[in-house]
Design the sequence.
């Protein structure tokens, strides 16, 4: 059986968890097995129906007021007890901030190794195998597992969503035995800056600026462009972040985030190796740079040689026009 | 306060990664190895904690003798002690293996810890596993990917980065934390620090000294194959009047990328 952890934040299911569930369905067909899902938290029942739409035969709800606030210790305790009861062969989680915090604690509790942030799963000689980028994407490593359950976290925004439509699965409420001493370092509060946009790891389009942006004030220009595009966020290169022009949350590359959006727009970014590692799996790459020899043009699907401060204002106008058409 | 910082020797981020397909390993020849960039934030934070609260900063790495170079750097930054846990086995990419070595180290040898600080991940294996695994194995609170830290007596508050927001987390010591960029600005080594680090002995601890049953260390994930990323081909490049090139760009977004 393939077991998928479904993450809920503020009464909403994470899209990345449904992507993992979709991938579990594809794997289950190949392995001739079934898929079950698990949620942990408080007051989860209203969300269970949405999960069933993605085809699991069961959704376990682990509810306890001690799970109302996320803690890796509490969540891993609750999930591992269930795992020891139902013995899944494979456990999948989305490699979100929560998934990356929870999965290794769960693995250690179960006494097994795991693979983080995988971008492909497959069945190889009858065995479950995963592919994951290492060195932020400068190489790809294929792994199999020597222990069960086989645990893998899957990178968000990589695996296609596939709703099944028939909600034939059942909701199983499980009593969770937890004592307060088991809850170590629970989240006290979520601080969301006002108007905080989409995270770059979750965006379909990233409008990214580098050294060529020349200063912090010009990042407003990128914000304007990203506002005109669907599901878009603003990214940045390391030099822009290290110059203090924009917060490191936006940094793409080896000491930032690795992203795979549908479209990556690189403005004033030369294409240093550590940056390219973090974005070269984007479906489409577009670049504007005044240096015709900039390495970014070697990987861009469409490049404009020119001064971005002249090109981007026109780009903004054209995008506005296309929107009103 | 006894702060331990766990660090790893990694290729610098400007490195091109080449693969030896026969050995199924990264070619280390010609690579420039450095202290993990996130580990550096860990070392800096430990030094700041010591400056504010007193105590001792000990840096530990699991690796080969070559790892001593990065431990010397940590000493030069101001760490009091550095210890090498010698492990000659090649990279397994199994974070749980290293976590079990550290579990033994903290259960059997370095038992006086108040805080274990890690980088949020190595830049290489990119596993992000070891801090949470060590926290579990030692039954400690964990806060990963932190960008802010305050410690008062035995209580701490950390900010942890999540998608588009920050989680404020309260914990009690001893605890495991992992550092994200933004936590601090690491200091440079001083000349005096470098001189002192040169003279300082780095004790070497073997896996046997830690009472580890090596049969427990066989890798639980098996590296089957290493591949280079798929090559991207250069596409169309246009030059000319900004008005025209912007128009062509939007046309590409509409007709080829089909995003608008």
Sequence:
């Amino acid at each position: 059986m393939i077991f998928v952890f479904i993450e809920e934040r503020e009464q909403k299911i994470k899209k990345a968890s449904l992507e993992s569930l979709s991938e579990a369905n594809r794997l289950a067909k190949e392995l001739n097995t079934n898929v079950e899902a698990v949620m942990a938290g408080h007051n989860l029942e209203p969300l269970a129906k949405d999960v069933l739409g993605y085809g699991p035969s069961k959704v376990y709800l682990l509810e306890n007021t001690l799970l109302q606030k996320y803690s890796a210790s509490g969540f891993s305790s609750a999930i591992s007890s269930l795992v020891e009861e139902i013995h899944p062969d494979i456990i999948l989680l989305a490699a979100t901030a929560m998934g990356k915090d929870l999965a290794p604690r769960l693995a250690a509790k179960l006494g097994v190794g795991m693979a983080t942030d995988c971008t492909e799963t497959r069945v190889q000689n009858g065995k479950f195998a995963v592919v994951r980028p290492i060195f932020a994407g400068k190489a790809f490593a294929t792994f199999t597992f020597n222990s069960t359950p086989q645990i893998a976290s899957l990178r968000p925004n990589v695996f296609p969503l596939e709703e099944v439509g028939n909600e034939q699965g059942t909701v199983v409420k499980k009593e969770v035995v937890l004592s307060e001493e088991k809850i170590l370092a629970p989240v006290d509060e979520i601080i969301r800056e006002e108007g905080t946009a989409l995270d770059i790891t979750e965006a379909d389009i990233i409008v990214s600026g580098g050294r060529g942006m020349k200063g912090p004030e010009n990042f407003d220009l990128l914000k304007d462009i990203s506002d005109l595009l669907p599901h878009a966020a603003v990214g940045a290169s390391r030099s822009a972040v290290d110059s203090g022009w924009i917060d490191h949350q936006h940094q793409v590359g080896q000491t930032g985030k690795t992203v795979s959006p549908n479209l990556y727009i690189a403005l004033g970014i030369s294409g240093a190796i550590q940056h390219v590692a973090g974005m070269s799996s984007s479906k489409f790459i577009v670049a504007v740079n005044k240096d015709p020899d900039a390495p970014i043009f070697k990987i861009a699907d469409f490049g404009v040689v020119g001064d971005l401060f002249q090109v981007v204002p026109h780009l903004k106008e054209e995008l506005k026009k296309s929107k009103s058409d | 306060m006894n702060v331990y910082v766990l660090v790893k020797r990694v290729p610098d981020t400007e490195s091109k990664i080449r693969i030896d397909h026969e050995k199924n390993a990264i070619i280390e020849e010609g690579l420039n190895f450095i202290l993990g960039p996130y580990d550096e934030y860990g070392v800096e934070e430990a030094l700041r904690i010591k400056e504010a609260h007193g105590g001792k900063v000990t840096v530990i790495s699991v690796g080969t003798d070559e790892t001593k170079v990065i431990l010397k750097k940590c000493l030069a930054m101001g760490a009091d002690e550095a210890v090498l846990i010698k492990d000659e086995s090649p990279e397994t990419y199994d974070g749980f293996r290293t976590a079990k070595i550290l579990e033994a180290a903290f259960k059997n040898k370095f038992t006086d810890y108040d805080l274990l600080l890690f980088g949020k991940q190595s830049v290489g294996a990119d596993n992000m596993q070891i801090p949470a695994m060590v926290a579990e194995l030692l039954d400690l609170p964990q806060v990963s990917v932190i960008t802010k830290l305050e410690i008062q007596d035995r209580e701490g508050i950390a900010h942890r980065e999540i998608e588009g927001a920050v989680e404020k987390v309260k914990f009690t010591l001893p605890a495991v934390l992992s550092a994200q960029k933004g936590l601090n600005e690491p200091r440079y080594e001083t000349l005096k620090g470098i001189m002192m680090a040169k003279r300082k002995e780095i004790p070497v601890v073997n896996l046997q000294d830690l009472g580890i049953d090596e049969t427990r260390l066989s890798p639980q994930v098996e590296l089957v194959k290493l591949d280079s990323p798929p090559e991207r081909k250069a596409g169309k490049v246009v030059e000319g009047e900004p008005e025209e090139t912007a128009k062509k760009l939007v046309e590409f977004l509409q007709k080829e990328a089909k995003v608008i």
The radius of gyration of chain A is 21 Å. Residues 40 and 160 of chain A are 24 Å apart (CA to CA). Chain A has a mean pLDDT of 95. DSSP finds eight helices and 18 strands in chain A.
